[in-house]
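Researcher: Going back to the complex we discussed earlier. I've cleaned up the inputs and rechecked each line, so this should be the final set. Can you rerun the prediction on the complete assembly and write out the structure?
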Amino acid sequence: MTELTSLTLAEACDRLRKKDISAVELTSAHVAAVEKARALNAYVLETPEQAVAMAKASDARIAKGEAGPLEGIPLAIKDLFATKGVRTTACSHILDNFVPTYESTITSQLWRDGAVMLGKTNNDEFAMGSSNETSCFGTVQSPWRREGSNTPLVPGGSSGGSAAAVAAQLCLGATATDTGGSIRQPAAFTGTVGIKPTYGRCSRWGVVAFASSLDQAGPITKTVRDAAIMLRSMAGPDAKDTTCVDRPVPDYEAAIGKSVKGLRIGIPKEYRLDGMPAEIEKIWQQGCDWLKSGGAELVDVSLPHTKYALPAYYIVAPAEASSNLARYDGVRYGLRAPGRDITDMYEKTRAEGFGAEVRRRVMIGTYVLSAGYYDAYYLRAQQVRTLIKRDFEQCFEAGVHAMLTPATPSAAFGIGEKGGADPVEMYLNDVFTVTVNMAGLPGIAVPAGSDAQGLPLGLQLIGRPFDEETLFSLGEVIEREAGRFVAKSWW
Amino acid sequence: MNQQANQHKLIKGATGDWEVVIGMEVHAQVSSKSKLFSGASTEFGAAPNSHVSLVDAAMPGMLPVINAECVDQAVRTGLGLNAQINLRSVFDRKNYFYPDLPQGYQISQYKQPVVGEGEIVVDLPDGEAVTIGIERLHLEQDAGKSLHDRHPQMSAVDLNRSGVALMEIVSKPDLRSAEEAKAYVTKLRSIMRYLGTCDGNMEEGSLRADVNVSVRKPGAPLGTRCEIKNVNSIRFIGQAIEHEARRQIEIIEDGGTIVQETRLFDPNRGETRSMRSKEEAHDYRYFPDPDLLPLELDAEAVAALKARLPELPDEKKARFVRDFGLSPYDAGQLVAERETADYFETVAKERDAKLAANWVINELFGRLNKEGQSVATSPLSAAQLGGLIELISDKTISGKIAKDLFEILWTEGGDPRALVAARGMAQVTDLGAIGAIIDELIAQNPDKVAQAKANPKAMMWFVGQAMKSSGGKASPQAVNELLKSKLGV
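Model: Rerun complete. Updated structure for the full complex:
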């Protein structure tokens, strides 16, 4: 059975179609693996009965020759996606026992294409975090450990449960969301592939909102090809989300193996940080060399406003979050802590329901939008955002097809190691990824090597708007050269 | 505004005359089948929480989608207010916590409204016409309703209204009396009813006003204003302003100062009372709603909406004056409501329009008012009243008989001409018959004859007697002519 969980999504698709294996077998193998891996805390809700029922239906469709593109593929769903009849909490106490009566657009497209739901995965509360330590369900342990060490490591965040589930072979792919790096950073930490598509590529309908102008869903998978297959089902126009763009979804898988010859790859000098670990420098150079030998042309580019991205992000994202989270007020659903009067009820509910990091961001957001501070903070941050976007546009206009950067400034760190005293220490994890959200561009994280302690390190490719295909082509070149990174089971 | 012209609008205080300055924010519910950002129905009077979509209830992950019909309605209204239509406008979030505000913010338009500056002409009862500036019109969501009478310790929330589209129409501070404010809201309502963009039904809450009132000595800078929230009838608007202006004048004349605050009007006591001070005012933390793209309008689409606008009250009034020779005052009365104007036009079509106007305004309106009816429910159709006008015009009946006929038509109905024939109500124009009546009167009243010869005005006695003898059916004109010749006056 272990053999089945080690398949890639693409391999499993082939074997299911050949009726070499059944969807029920495949799903059952994963259900068993999930049960065995509870120590990781990757799943916050397992739905084995539903999974097997869906797999049976998949087998019936395969038998009738009506298989969808993801027929019988067991997936994990980040707890931010509303799943009809299945508890959805965003890993926040304030949504305790919230069971939606509706299905998010993305998950309904996955089920439409035949996928099977194994359960809901852990994440930082309301996707606010870079280590999956802010979840009300507790920390996720990365399946990775430093060589010769038992120190539990974070899987990254906020999609830590999804990344850990993919890395530990507890599913063939997982949905995730990325507001400032929440797909790419955990992918990089766990040796998996994660793509944040262009803003507007995937519908946000039914996905619990963190920061509406930055949130974008995407897949975390074992391989670049798997990500391409899964994104095709997730993407597409949606009349229920007016920020979702009405343009056809290409066959992303067709981009895999496409020559990268002649592509101009920008290497932004601002991403070379002072004090960056030599290992990061090394894999970045390695990535450059691989792309070059693939026929791509490397060009030095400058994105001069990069250094303002993180501070501007930590104004825009909390501002939107403070408003998006206002609906969790104890009036209609979720947690309600009784109070003397309505204001007291609000205060008690929100104090009890939100964790420390969420409360911090709601307060920051409220502050930066307040009368007298709006111009100095929010408006200025939006201006910075325009400049960041223009930096990228100018490079693309000058003929750059994509950029290559490190995905994270370090490998995975230990649980409880960062951000305890200073939240900014944690926020710095997103330094290479937030720019991409601020500019609304697509970005993919691909594992590219290991650090001295055997932990995976990732590279990030940033593309032109709606040119995810080029990212898949380039990403697969790196993947081909670097090989796959699979965690050794200790759980 | 001209100081002289406004003299009569000033309020007398102990220290001299005061001028009241009023600006209004009118909240008009957009006539549309579904809400501003969701597909839920806007029908009034449904069971609580029966018209609530996932979006209206602000369930996690829900997103607003703009209702294009509501946008068109706002643009139509803007065009009707002779206002600038902004081809690019932005929806913002106005953040505050309230149980009947599920999202924790109201989606509104703050810095970039869909409609900019405009103006409307308002007719006052004394015949004066004043031009009132429109500052802006923007689209926003209505909130739900909190119900406090269902449970001793708890409040209930009804979200049927939550998310219904409102137009907030903000005037410039151009209004100078309660009368003007009432006339302004009446005119706004009339324009929106003509356009079909708001039913103007104040009982159902389709039209509400926030009234900003300040007072000053004529020519002085603007005084500190108080805002009276949510006044829901035109009469109350007048009362609230009268009371608030008096209150402010008394405070200032007693040596006090006006504190900027929000007040509520209590219709039972006819007074305003403090709701919250400026210090207690919310910080709404407006910012552009990231769930919605800026609203982009196509100039051609706006032009198409403009081309399809109905004739509005001002144009109709001008046409009635020009084509029918009506006085501006009469025309103004007829066009106030579209149904009335349509009724009048049917009555007047190919008939004596002035006569038709007199009958509609004096007889019909008088009777409708008396019986608490409206043109829409009038027992007398425009065709019937038109028939009556024809009978007067062709001298089949006299004006006096016409009033009897009006009564019959009102209570019994029927075809006017057939009724006149069946009941022998036609005017007698036979000179022989009238002559015989007059001859008899002259023979029997030599003293009156002498008086009439001395003073021709005394002839009226003979007119009256002749009409009486004919049962009112004699043609007054024929009676007059025959009398003149027979009496030799």
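Model: Worth noting: Chain A is about 35% helix and 15% strand.
Researcher: Good, that matches what I expected from the previous run.
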